[in-house]
Design goal:
single chain; eight-stranded parallel β-barrel; 9 helices
Length: 266
């Protein structure tokens, strides 16, 4: 199974530092977080020449860019804002294609004041348009199980509404479990559409809020999702997403070691 980390873990690192850590801790890929003023500077304003340079740099080091992570939302009532997000997503499709990344992460969002069915329809239609724009490239758009769409049946409804081969799922393992979903139930809804995953363990604080922790020290089950995907010959990435914790090398080292330990036990 392939392992990557998102640059949220190391927002103050440039590409050279990122690549060095990926190789040191045996990660096969790096997921690029955009729109957050990170030091890697892989953003929409990157010139064609610089995009080619990024692609070449990662290829020479043997590290893939499995996903470009945006925070664009599409299950929103504001038609003007949704149109702006669709147009921006098209630009990210071009960026991902230029740097050699096959996937772009998007959100549905917290849909209020829309009804759930209307939210799924609006999101699905928007992503269908983006999927049509992505035809002729190697890029796909992935809706993350996040916010209102942490519930897997809701995420699956968006995929049904989009009805396009370029629109699929990023399975964040934590969020459906926070919604008290059985893991097999989640996978039954998402099966066949999962292209990429986010991993992060966590525990509940006394205040009832989830706190991210080292892999295996929390309550988020990673073993069953890994087993389910292994049985289906999944070839995508499990990507570590740690935000605002500092000490990136501590997290990279521990997650890689524990992930391989779990994998070897399957």
């Amino acid at each position: 199974m392939k392992l990557s980390f998102m640059t949220w873990s190391c927002p103050d690192w440039d590409c050279n530092q990122i690549l060095k850590a990926a190789k040191k801790y045996d990660y096969q890929g790096v997921e690029i977080r955009v729109e957050c003023n990170q030091k890697h500077k892989i953003e929409l304003n990157l010139s064609k020449e610089d995009r080619n340079a990024v692609k070449r740099m990662f290829k020479e080091e043997g590290i893939e860019i499995p996903c470009v992570a945006t925070s664009l939302q599409f299950a929103i009532a504001d038609d003007k804002k949704r149109r702006e997000n669709i147009e921006k997503l098209k630009k990210y499709i071009e960026l991902a294609s230029d740097i050699g990344s096959p996937y772009i992460r998007v959100f549905g969002g917290n849909f209020m004041p829309l009804e759930p069915k209307a939210a799924a329809q609006k999101c699905g239609l928007a992503l269908r348009e983006a999927g049509e724009f992505a035809e002729g490239t190697d890029v796909e758009i992935l809706l993350e199980t996040h916010d209102f769409f942490s519930v897997s049946s809701r995420a699956r409804q968006v995929i049904k509404e989009a009805n396009h081969r370029k629109v699929n799922i990023l399975w964040d393992i934590m969020h459906p479990q926070r919604e008290m979903e059985d893991i097999e139930e989640t996978y039954n809804h998402l099966r066949g559409f999962v292209r990429h995953l986010h991993i992060h363990d966590g525990f509940y604080s006394p205040e009832g809020k989830i706190e991210v922790c080292l892999l295996g020290e929390g309550i988020i089950d990673h073993e069953i999702p890994m087993w389910l995907l292994k049985n289906d010959n999944f070839r995508g990435y499990f990507s570590l997403e740690i935000i605002g914790k500092g000490e990136p090398e501590k997290w990279f080292k521990q997650y890689a070691q524990k992930f391989r330990e779990i994998e070897s036990s399957l």
